[in-house]
Design a protein that fits this description.
- It is a single chain.
- This protein is mainly α and about 290 residues long.
- The chain folds into two domains: about 220 residues, no CATH class; about 30 residues.
- The chain is built from ten helices and no strands.
């Protein structure tokens, strides 16, 4: 995922700069004063809005979202099926030996509940609470990025106002007007670029990763509860695959011929038809 993101990022930057270059000198779009107003103004507003620890947490979440690969749903289902088989053969306490082998923190916590012999209601309550506060923490990080994204265009507008004031104050001085025009126009451009090109995509990435991780956690919770209930591994596999898209499932769909053979549909239809004919014949004789 991170390589796709990097390729997309560099490709977008190249196309973005190419679009500027097609309309003239690309150096006209760069203004140090405008960049300082937007960057430091947004940074100051973010520090006034959030605690430094929370901003650090947002940064860590963002780095993790781009750098740390996520396990696939099929991998989690395979692990749970394997654990289900082990629990039926060796007993649930045997899972304690495999608890530290998994790299997924939520799965380790779920296995801890299973090994400690919590009942189904307790396991569901503990894991649901874990999922709830995980979602809240991620939503806080996403909300902070969206708030910062809203600050960027505002400080771009402030930079434009500063440039316009300088232009008005420099009426009659051509050199001052020429210096103020890039600040006035580039500030708005930088504010929009930082907002729509960086912070809003960052927030969307965190939301996407959060939804994927919540899906994995839901699969883990249902799988662990099923293992605790000693559900047959084949039934467990069928249940967990319902979380996947049809293209990701390994299950082969049963043909219509097998369904008819299993439930004797044709025989039942014939019997129903024969009963209807007998009713009609009995009605005629009456």
């Amino acid at each position: 995922m991170k390589y796709k993101n990097l390729i997309g990022f560099f490709l977008s930057v190249i196309l973005f700069l190419l679009g500027f270059a097609l309309h003239g000198n690309i150096g006209l779009y760069f203004s140090l004063s405008a960049a300082l107003i937007v960057i430091f103004g947004t940074l100051a507003a973010a520090l006034l809005s959030y605690k430094l620890d929370q901003l650090r947490n947002v940064f860590r979440v963002l780095i993790t979202a781009y750098r740390k690969p996520m396990a696939k749903e099929t991998e989690i289902i395979t692990i749970l099926i394997d654990l289900s088989i082990r629990s039926r053969v060796e007993g649930i306490l045997a899972l304690q030996n495999h608890e530290n082998e998994t790299t997924i923190l939520f799965l380790r916590r779920a296995l801890g509940c299973l090994v400690d012999r919590y009942n189904i209601e307790q396991i569901r309550d503990i894991l649901n609470t874990e999922m709830y506060f995980f979602r809240l923490r991620r939503e806080d990080s996403e909300r902070a990025l969206r708030t910062i994204a809203n600050y960027c265009p505002t400080f771009g507008l402030i930079g434009s106002v500063v440039g316009l004031i300088t232009m008005i104050g420099g009426i009659g001085d051509t050199s001052m007007i020429l210096k103020a025009i890039p600040v006035a126009l580039a500030s708005t451009l930088y504010g929009l670029v930082f907002s729509t090109f960086f912070f809003l995509p960052f927030a969307a990435t965190i939301r996407e990763k959060t939804n994927q991780e919540l899906l994995l956690q839901k699969i883990i919770m249902e799988g662990v509860i099923a293992i605790n209930s000693e559900v047959n591994p084949v039934i467990l596999k069928t249940k967990l695959e319902s979380f996947l898209t049809p293209s990701a499932r390994e299950t082969e769909y049963v043909s219509y011929a097998k369904i008819r053979e299993r439930f004797n549909i044709e025989r039942q239809l014939k019997n129903d038809a024969q009963r209807e004919m007998r009713k009609e014949e009995n009605g005629k004789f009456r």
